[in-house]
User: What shape does this take?
Amino acid sequence: MKRREFISSMGMIGAMTLVPSVLLAKGERKRKTDHEKCKAVWTRLCGANADKPPFRYVVNDKKLPNILLYGDSISIGYTPTVMEELQGQANVYRIHRNGASSNQFISYMEALKQSMFQPYLKGGWNFKWDIIHFNVGLHDLKYVVNGSTLDKVNGKQMSTIDIYKSNLEAICKYLQKEFPKATLVFATTTPVPEDEPGRFVGDDVKYNEAALEVLRNYPNIKINDLYAYVLPNFKEWAIKSGNVHYNPNGKKEQGKWVAKIIRSYL
Assistant: This one.
């Protein structure tokens, strides 16, 4: 081979080895840009909650299964422990806000989908939920005035049992249609204490019975009886008398329980 031809061929080999490196660099820059975009959208979606541990942005590890937690402030309380317990075993996300009552479930799920996932968000999330752990009920059975102030004497109930059952039926159909391959786990509603200003003792049991009645039509949906787990420990875990929320130990123990249930379905 002549010297000129040899130099030319070596130049072509150098260019060929350079191409993969350039493509890798471009791919890495795109992933970084997509990550920054997703994080910014997530921050806007969470609003004032964005800096709180339960709502921290989760960087997806493609090698791990994806878990979604949906629920009200009780689930917000146990979310960080679930994340900690399942670290390295699953990507654990929660809905971007307080899940509130059953009539808001589908709209909040759609807001998450259309804000964070492809094709709605270019470069957005592109994975499937493997497990969805969800609960509604504690907000449904409460009585409020002016839309938010707890008052079981003068207030109006957010959802009657019939409305709650109808909403839960719609939720089950929605989840099975949208996420046919996901394992669905429904958590029963945690206890209502004496002297709670906007909820009646016993309604927790009634609404859980109503939920289980609906879920009998959906045998593929698993049940996490969180109510039964919490009840014997309620006084020890309660944040204060007449309050449905829990102290740090109560949140942690609930998180461990929820993580255990989820782990059994991984």
User: Anything to note?
Assistant: The domain at 48-263 is CATH 3.40.50.1110 (Rossmann fold). The CA atoms of residues 74 and 245 lie 7 Å apart. The chain has a mean pLDDT of 93.
